[in-house]
């Protein structure tokens, strides 16, 4: 299922980056420097629609944005604390507070590299600089993993981590904006990176059609696709199709979680719209 429009200028900062950054900041995640004025405009403009959507049992993005973020944080924390991961490479990080929070929490015990398109990376770098977050173990790099030599650039960034240790690659809030071919290309590139390390972990999120079937969901997907300007893609109908696709790419083991499975561990995992998204945790062994 696909709701599509032409792509915007590659270096433009997407409305969702502003919106999600504001959602995280207003819920106490990260610092206020990661919330933009435009994000506040978008949030307030969408609030009447969100009230109606909740009233009619439709999706409320704030719910699943917070739920997926919290579950990914939980899974990453568990991997770090277990000694499996000491490097994190986050793709298309936008205004996410994760890098700031994990760098503050773990200090020199981890290396955290955030990436995004040049305009977004520059804005994020400025915000983190104001927070005093950047340093030898936390930085932001410009990267377009889906264009040109993105695969080579991704491998070059990965080479800067210690290959004998474990690496986690994160792509939050990205996959449903990609056509299926680009999604599979991204997964293959991520796998190639992770297989260079002693332990590899891929964390992401994905909306599947089965969880978003109602008429209000369809309308919301159409409107969100127009809001973003890239379209929304529901590549898979059921979770098992996602699992098979990741396994056929070479990931093992592969787990798909509903946020509500972490309701006792993650603050926002039981919000009403939380289970409209799945969280992916996929392993990769060194070859």
From TrEMBL:
InterPro entries: Ppm1/Ppm2/Tcmp, SAM-dependent_MTases_sf
GO MF term set: methyltransferase activity
Organism of derivation: Actinopolyspora biskrensis
Signal peptide limits: none
Protein name stated in the entry: O-methyltransferase involved in polyketide biosynthesis
A single GO BP: methylation
Keywords, alphabetical: Methyltransferase, Transferase
């Amino acid at each position: 299922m696909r709701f599509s429009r032409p792509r915007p200028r590659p270096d433009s900062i997407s409305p969702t980056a502003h919106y999600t950054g504001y959602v995280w900041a207003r819920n106490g995640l990260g610092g206020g420097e990661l919330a933009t004025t435009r994000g506040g405009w978008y949030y307030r403009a969408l609030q009447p629609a969100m009230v109606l959507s909740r009233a009619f049992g439709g999706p409320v993005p704030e719910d699943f944005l917070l739920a997926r973020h919290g579950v990914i944080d939980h899974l990453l924390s568990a991997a770090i604390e277990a000694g499996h991961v000491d490097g994190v490479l986050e793709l298309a990080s936008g205004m996410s507070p994760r890098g700031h929070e994990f760098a503050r929490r773990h200090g020199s015990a981890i290396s955290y590299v955030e990436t995004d398109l040049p305009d977004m990376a520059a804005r994020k770098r400025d915000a983190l600089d104001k927070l005093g977050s950047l340093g030898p173990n936390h930085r932001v790099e410009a990267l377009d993993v889906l264009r040109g030599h993105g695969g080579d650039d991704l491998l070059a960034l990965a080479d800067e981590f210690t290959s004998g240790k474990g690496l986690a690659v994160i792509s939050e809030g990205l996959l449903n904006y990609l056509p299926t071919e680009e999604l599979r290309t991204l997964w293959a590139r991520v796998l190639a990176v992770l297989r260079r390390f002693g332990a590899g972990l891929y964390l992401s999120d994905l909306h599947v059609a089965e969880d978003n079937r109602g008429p209000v969901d369809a309308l919301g997907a159409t409107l969100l696709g127009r809001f973003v300007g890239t379209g929304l893609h529901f590549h898979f109908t059921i979770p098992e199709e996602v699992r098979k696709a990741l396994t056929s790419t070479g990931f093992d083991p592969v787990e798909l979680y509903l946020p509500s499975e972490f309701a006792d561990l993650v603050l926002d995992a039981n919000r009403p719209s939380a289970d409209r998204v799945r969280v992916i945790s996929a392993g990769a062994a060194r070859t």
